[in-house]
Structure formats: structure tokens, C-alpha cells
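hiii so um. not sure if this is the right channel but i have a protein structure encoded as C-alpha cells and i wanna go backwards to a sequence. like what aa goes where. can anyone help
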């Protein structure tokens, strides 16, 4: 059969922007035989999608810890919404949609159970520190496939590491994911807060909603269109100044009203205690870790502290609570 991959790579040079990352120029740490039907970035997307860490995202908290109801976002649904927004922008700007999607699907793969509360406590107790974006690289480089890693391209890993606003990805596609992440979480967190009865639309600051829109659909539509218009024929992916100011204003409002001290966060201290006690337990009983984690110490020279943190950070909300109960909550005695 004809080499489908080669034809797809050729089409990228014909159809994509000069600023787009081209699959033929992708770089891996370990060379491997190319696929005959998939480009390098399509292959990376599929490796992330089929990874165990990606599947676990469906049982990890986004903002609302253990909500009653099936319609609140999880870390997985957030990831899929980021991917959808990022792909829309990438397609409109003629950037590499496959690279964009791979970065988006992997950008939160290093997150802990219990949302940012879990990240905060592991960063506090782990001597080497913890951040979900750096942990994401550990997952795909060292922990997946029983320690072999996924051998993702440099471009995908760069986008995963640098998706926060304080960092700048090397590729335009990474910059698209970076801004899509912010657009997604502000809008879906507002949507979930309204569903929970914590917020109502008329409680949002009018000075920002008059710029962005008066419902979630309109705000998403406004911001996505604005990014496309403001970033055309450029390597910079930005919102126009009025829309960025409004987005940052909404973000500040959400931090003060939802992310800190609201009813949605009232279980955070309990959640932190669960992960703290699990981390300390496995650090004191390192022989209880699965073999692939122990190999990180014996074969790769990692510290016990890092490996215990790896294991606990990979747990889902439900599994962390289950292990906590097994280890620290007395079971009923039966004769």
C-alpha cells in the first residue's frame, strides 16, 4: 500500500501555516521506526489516549470534590473540553491539529486526586516538591508502560510542561493549548458553580460579562473567536486586551468566590489529610509499593520520597479513599 504517513506529512507543508509545527520535524529522545499510517503527533495522541494515567482522569476531581450528581466536570471532561477548544483554534489558524490535540490530552495527566488541594498537599509534604505539570512529564517519560515511558516527541512534552500562564511553550500549538486551558476552566467552573447553586449568572461582575457574554455559551464563543482574530498570521496566541482583562477579572472573581473558602471547597482539608497520611505511610513502608515503582529506585536511582509521591499522586479520588479506609479506619469485627 502507499505510505499514508508520508502523504500526510507532505500535505502539512501544503496546507498548514508557515508557523505550524510539521510532523516530519518531530523529535524523540529514542529513535523508532515510523508508522506507515500515522504521523508522529498522531502517534503521540494515541499513546496518551491509551495510557493508564489518562483513563484515571475520569475519577479525579476538577473543582467539586465528590459532588452529588453526574454532570459536574472531572479532570477528564475538563481535558476533553480543552482539546475541543484548542482543536477549533488550531484548525482556524492552520496550525497542526494533531500536535495540538496530543498536548491538550496530556496537559493534566500528572494531576493528583482531589484537584489542586491534592497538588498543594503533596507539594508541601514531598521534600522534592510536586507540581502537576512536572509530574505529567514523569508519567509519560518514566512511569507509564511499567517504567518504559511513552517516548513522546519533544514538542508534545514541551507543550505539556509549559501549559500554565507563567510559562511559554516553544510551539504555536502549545500556546494554543495554554490559552484554551484557561478559557475552558473558567467557563466550565462557572457552569458547574451555577449548577450547584453556589453562583447565579447575575452574581458575575457585569463589567466582565458585558465584554464576554451573559452565559457560558456566549462567553466561549466570544473568547474563541477573539483568539482566532487576535492571533491571525502570528506566532503569538492571545486574546485582545479587553477580552483578556475580562477573563483575568472573572478568574480573580472565581478565586475569591469559588476556589477559596466556598462550600465547594469545604472538604479540601479532609482530602489533604487523606493524601498526606497515605504518602507518609508509603514512605515509611516503601516495600508495599508496586514493583514498577520500586524499580524507579533500584534501577534508576530515584529517591524514596519521589517514588512514594509518584504512587500517591497517581491515585484516583475513589482509590485514595479506599486505601485510606483499609489502612486507617477500623473494620467491623465478625466472628
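sure thing!! here u go:
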Amino acid at each position: 500500500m502507499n505510505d499514508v504517513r508520508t502523504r500526510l506529512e507532505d500535505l502539512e507543508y501544503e496546507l498548514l501555516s508557515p508557523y505550524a509545527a510539521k510532523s516530519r520535524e518531530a523529535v524523540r529522545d529514542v529513535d523508532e521506526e515510523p508508522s506507515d499510517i500515522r504521523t508522529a503527533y498522531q502517534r503521540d495522541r494515541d499513546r496518551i489516549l491509551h495510557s493508564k494515567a489518562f483513563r484515571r482522569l475520569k475519577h479525579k476531581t476538577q473543582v467539586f470534590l465528590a459532588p452529588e450528581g453526574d454532570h459536574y466536570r472531572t479532570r477528564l471532561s475538563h481535558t476533553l473540553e480543552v482539546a475541543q477548544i484548542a482543536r477549533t483554534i488550531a484548525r482556524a489558524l492552520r496550525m497542526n491539529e494533531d500536535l495540538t490535540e496530543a498536548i491538550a490530552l496530556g496537559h493534566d495527566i500528572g494531576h493528583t486526586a482531589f484537584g489542586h488541594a491534592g497538588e498543594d498537599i503533596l507539594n508541601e509534604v514531598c521534600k522534592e516538591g510536586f507540581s502537576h505539570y512536572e509530574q505529567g512529564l514523569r508519567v509519560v517519560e518514566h512511569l507509564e508502560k511499567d517504567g518504559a515511558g511513552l517516548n513522546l516527541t519533544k514538542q508534545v512534552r514541551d507543550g505539556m510542561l509549559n501549559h500554565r500562564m507563567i510559562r511559554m511553550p516553544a510551539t504555536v500549538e502549545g500556546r494554543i493549548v495554554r490559552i484554551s486551558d484557561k478559557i475552558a476552566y473558567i467557563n466550565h467552573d462557572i457552569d458547574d458553580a451555577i449548577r450547584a447553586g453556589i453562583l447565579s449568572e447575575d452574581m458575575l461582575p457585569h463589567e466582565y460579562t458585558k465584554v464576554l457574554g451573559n452565559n457560558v455559551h456566549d462567553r466561549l464563543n466570544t473568547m474563541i473567536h477573539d483568539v482566532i482574530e487576535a492571533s491571525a498570521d502570528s506566532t503569538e496566541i492571545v486574546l485582545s486586551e479587553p477580552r483578556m482583562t475580562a477573563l483575568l477579572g472573572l478568574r480573580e472573581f472565581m478565586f475569591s468566590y469559588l476556589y477559596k473558602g466556598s462550600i465547594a471547597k469545604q472538604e479540601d482539608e479532609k482530602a489533604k489529610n487523606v493524601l498526606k497520611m497515605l504518602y507518609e505511610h508509603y514512605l515509611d513502608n516503601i516495600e508495599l509499593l508496586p514493583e514498577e515503582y520500586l524499580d524507579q529506585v533500584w534501577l534508576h536511582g530515584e529517591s524514596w520520597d519521589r517514588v512514594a509521591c509518584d504512587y500517591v499522586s497517581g491515585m484516583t479520588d475513589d482509590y485514595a479513599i479506599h486505601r485510606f479506609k483499609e489502612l486507617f479506619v477500623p473494620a467491623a469485627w465478625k466472628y
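oh and The radius of gyration is 21 Å.
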